[in-house]
Amino acid sequence: MASGVVAALAYAGPPPLTLVRTFTSWRFTPGVAAAVAVLGGGYGLGLRRRPASAGAWPRGRTLSFAAGVVIIALVGMSFLGVYDDTLFWVRAVQNIVLLMVVPMLLAMGAPFTLLRDQLPVPARARLSRLLHGKAARLLTFPLVVTVVLTLPLLVLYLSPLYEMTLRSAVASAVAGLVLATTGFVYFWTRFRIDPAPRTDPYGVTLAITVVEMIGDAVLGVVLWLGPLVAAGYYTALARDWGPSIQVDQWLGAGALWIGGDVVGLPFIGVVFARMTREDHQKAVVIDAELDARDAERAAATAEPDGPQEAERPRLWWEDDPELSHRFRRR
User: Fold this and answer.
1) Domain boundaries, the chain
2) SS3 of 18, please?
3) Residue 38 C-beta-side C-alpha neighbours within 13 Å
4) Nearest to 72 by CA among 44, 129, 111, 33
5) Average pLDDT of each block of 10 consecutive residues along the chain (330 residues)?
6) Among 157, 172, 165, which residue's Cα sits nearest to residue 221?
7) For the whole model, what pTM was predicted?
8) Where is this region: Disordered (predicted)?
9) Distance (Å, rounded) from C-alpha 306 to C-alpha 103?
């Protein structure tokens, strides 16, 4: 009894987390507010200054980017920001959202395309050279991107860096910025909604996604079965409510593992949608080229007296060695 009283007196964190407090607990974080203002204000200004000659801007891009900015605010200033130094699982949710959800939405907003549309021609050329230069191509090489996506969480949780983020607001802000930046590089280069340094096949993207899911699983298992992370910090916190330190870490391991895989599902859906769209666009171009070639051939072999059989445009499959015998006209 005495030890419980001492622990209760020693605890100086936020009150017990309840369902109601998940909606009512808020705090103002200047760094998060600044990031929201810069990203949201910059995107909004870009939309206002974008010339009408550039065409209509897709509404879905604006909604995606706005959702990403709103989630940044929620991660840093809602109950996730209030309890991120108190509960392991809350910090885990915060980190997986910063790595996977926020960057995906920001990349779907096509910020580089928005920036390019309002730049003068010389600056636009410099931006294109920067995005397609050797350094950018090297940094976005599939193997490099895979490491960039999977390594940050492993380093964060399996090194003293995690406890530093609990004790230092600066370290926490830097870690969050690194997670969001590395995630954005991944989604930007994989979606290719914006101009990207590489045009790797979407199959490579799906392979990287599988590797990332394996990385989430490995980290989840290590945190589930391994020793307590930042045990000294959480013990000294003397939290007298909620799950035990061990159960709290188990919950966080599940959030990192399952959360990463769940977020990967809509990403795969977007990739398949873009792959289908690009295949359709390529098919339209190929069909147009084949039709133009057939029209030229028909014009070259036409007789001046009137329409003959030779004047009929040949369909593309009539010249295909595997299909022509199946569809030969009788």
Assistant:
1) 2-286
2) coil
3) 7
4) 33
5) 48 91 93 94 91 86 95 95 94 93 92 86 77 75 76 90 93 93 86 76 68 75 90 92 94 86 66 62 61 68 52 51 48
6) 157
7) 0.74
8) 295-317
9) 63
